[in-house]
Write the structure tokens for this entry.
Amino acid sequence: MVSAGIILLAAYSFIVGTMYWKQDSMIYFPEREIIDTPQSVNLPYENVIFKTKDGFTISGWYIPAKDEKGTVVFCHGNAGNVSHFLEHIKVLNGLRLSVLAFDYRGYGKSDGAPSEEGIYLDAEAAWDYLVNEYGKTPQNIIVVGHSLGGAVATELAMRKKPAVLIVESSFTSLPDLAAKIYPWLPVRLMSKHQYASINKVSSIPCPKLFIHSPDDEIVPFEQGRALFEKASEPKEFLLIKGGHNDGFLISGKTYSDGLMKFLEKYSIIR
């Protein structure tokens, strides 16, 4: 007769194996349908497409600012696509920042399927497009990332030399976040994706702003604080309120004024 322990072990092993092989679908939540454009929030824009080093076509928008003071490479969060982040883009554009917002491979109209290194290459291609096609200089490029995009933005700031890096509502690493969600699984051994910003922020020389809310229901506040603590100077921390996806809206002027003061301090906006 098979013991209960063996049955439990077999069941646990099955769950671990299933989650290992299906982790991509548990990490990435892309949507193909573009539900809106910047026009819906009264922003002029240009459709853009560009190629990555490994041959994928990436789709996005360029939203110019009146009396431009700088340009943002915007790395969006995990779920949906760029059209789900229009309010974020509007706030940035309202600070007289032009914005290049793009979809990672497998999201929206971009080719392929998402992977960690692939998404890093997508962000690099967005940077190169700004420099080569729009003539932007690194001294005026601001890299901004929300949630998963915070990890993408951090890697981009490692590979390039932006004026500043802004990381909002992001995690220390994907295994750290998964360990909070699945404490009963050996996620650190299972994870094929790292997105380990905690190992990178100390070596990024540009000014860095970390934004997080204690009310964040998806990424623990302490992980946002840990990124800030590990980061090299110069750095700032902006405390906001509200949930993971609406904190910037709920916080209102606290959020927008905090961004403005940070950019003014480091002479991005005068």
In short: Residues 216 and 243 are 5 Å apart (CA to CA). Residues 4-21 form the longest helix (18 residues).
